[in-house]
Amino acid sequence: MRLAVLGAGSVGRAVVDLASEYGHTVTAVADSGSAVVDADGVDAEAVLARKREDDVVGDGDPSHALSTDYDVLVEATPTTLGDAEPGFGHVRGALETDRHVVLANKGPVAERYDAVRALADESAGSLRFEATVGGAIPALATIEGVGPSRVTAARGVLNGTANFVLSRMAAEGLDYEHVLAEAQDLGVAEADPTFDVDGTDAALKCAILANVIHGGGYSLADVDVEGITAIPPSALDLAAEEGQTVRLVGEVTGDDVRVGPRLVPEHGTLAVTGTTNIVQLETEHAGRLNLSGQGAGGAATASAVLADVNRLD
Amino acid sequence: MRLAVLGAGSVGRAVVDLASEYGHTVTAVADSGSAVVDADGVDAEAVLARKREDDVVGDGDPSHALSTDYDVLVEATPTTLGDAEPGFGHVRGALETDRHVVLANKGPVAERYDAVRALADESAGSLRFEATVGGAIPALATIEGVGPSRVTAARGVLNGTANFVLSRMAAEGLDYEHVLAEAQDLGVAEADPTFDVDGTDAALKCAILANVIHGGGYSLADVDVEGITAIPPSALDLAAEEGQTVRLVGEVTGDDVRVGPRLVPEHGTLAVTGTTNIVQLETEHAGRLNLSGQGAGGAATASAVLADVNRLD
């Protein structure tokens, strides 16, 4: 397959780096300010070097990146809320010209799922977005295998930054601000970690899970969200006395979609540590399935993108 | 799809029961002594009632079951070793007539993988066997998504009976014979649990994992196997003092395939309890993926069979 990769953050760069190993050719790469297009395949090493050294992927205009020959749009630009632009427009352009779309950007399928689904239904191209929920974890492929109507609930720890902070607070008895600063020093938390710690990122993933399970109808506004910023160390101490701990848990149960700090058994399945994510599916005939792994990171997320590319018809 | 279901044990019966919910029609069912065939779809309730009351599925000859119209052979007869017959013959007959094959029977893909693979390569039909490893757990679909060559190791707790026995021995301090008798009373262990407790069942699953990861070449004879029958309660006590416990772990690492009791951290990922199974995959780009769930049971295993049917081209 010929891939057009939009976005040159850690995920987009890793897709460019790994695509040839998966048997695919990258014919276009664009970031917000530059682009490179080559119908015979771009030079991945040169693109990555330019990005690293000069923060550009090439000398072309990013708006022309999708005018090349490509079979699959890999949309890995930053997640945006509301109208989910410019990602939504990229997705529309690709589907309207009967190309496949694989998303790492959560915006279009969290905020405008029904519109994206309608575009995909009209298109000869297919739409996949495994990488948007739980990074490397095969959550959506598993729901597809079970059959969305036979998944009765989904639950998970879906934000590695929040989980790292909670794990460290519980293990060290330190307060939120202290641990967050440490996480930022380690590169686990971004300079602006708002969406991670206020629950927005996990809520977007839950909206996507709800859309997949229920066939659409959900956006961030439908998720009841509470973050971890107000949890005092004393709450974790109290939990520990009862053999419990606190995790930022997202849940899709029936029509309800919510994210918030929950008490979970200290050694239980949901008490994943560090940046690990977990998705738990309750199914009609197969009981509970637990899927855990790296919820973020360029290569791990890119591997979910490339698995999606391999699943395209 | 029209399904011909061979085998009317718990898995075969559950496939017959659930097929219509997944949009499929069962056109033949056979057990070892009887069969029923109806090109318009058998009456599932009647078949299940006859099996329950008279231990027959119909009044036909089982050897004629595959002469009906069908698209997919669901092979759910008991696993046999060595030549893997009669399962292997059923698989050959279906693939040679360009039908798809979905296996719950481990024999053909554990003992004669290369021959089955060659038949599938020559056939217009496809071969799938998710249900043979870890019941409801999507282990093989996940390996397929990651790409077999990018799975660097697989490891797992793959036998629910052995795991139940070890969990109970550790929790209650009881000896092996006592707990096994209890498991038999509860229906968790079969009357003859030899293959579960001597490691054979887990070893067959590891041979299948090795075949998938390495593209063939493995059978039971290639697996280094040790069971749980010789573990004294004192070994579990000693492990517990160090925060460890014992699990029957199967491993595929490089060319090595082995099954045996291993020390694992008491609250670690591999220390699943009761009849839960887990498969852990080490991947080149996506780190470690953990997949756990019901490793056995009619409905859970049938759901893996039917997910495979839905994945057929």
UniProtKB/TrEMBL annotation, chains A, B:
Pfam families noted in UniProt: ELFV_dehydrog, Homoserine_dh
Residues binding NADP(+), per UniProt: 7-12
EC numbers, comma separated: 1.1.1.3
GO aspect biological process, one term: threonine biosynthetic process
Residues that, per the record, bind L-homoserine: 190
Residues covered by the Homoserine dehydrogenase catalytic domain: 148-309
Binding site for NADPH: 106
Enzyme class: oxidoreductase
InterPro entries assigned to the protein according to its UniProt record, in alphabetical order: Glu/Leu/Phe/Val/Trp_DH_C, HDH_cat, HDH_CS, HDH_short, NAD(P)-bd_dom_sf
Keyword tags: NADP, Oxidoreductase
Family as reported in the entry's similarity comment: Belongs to the homoserine dehydrogenase family.
Full protein name: homoserine dehydrogenase
Source species of the chain: Halobacterium jilantaiense
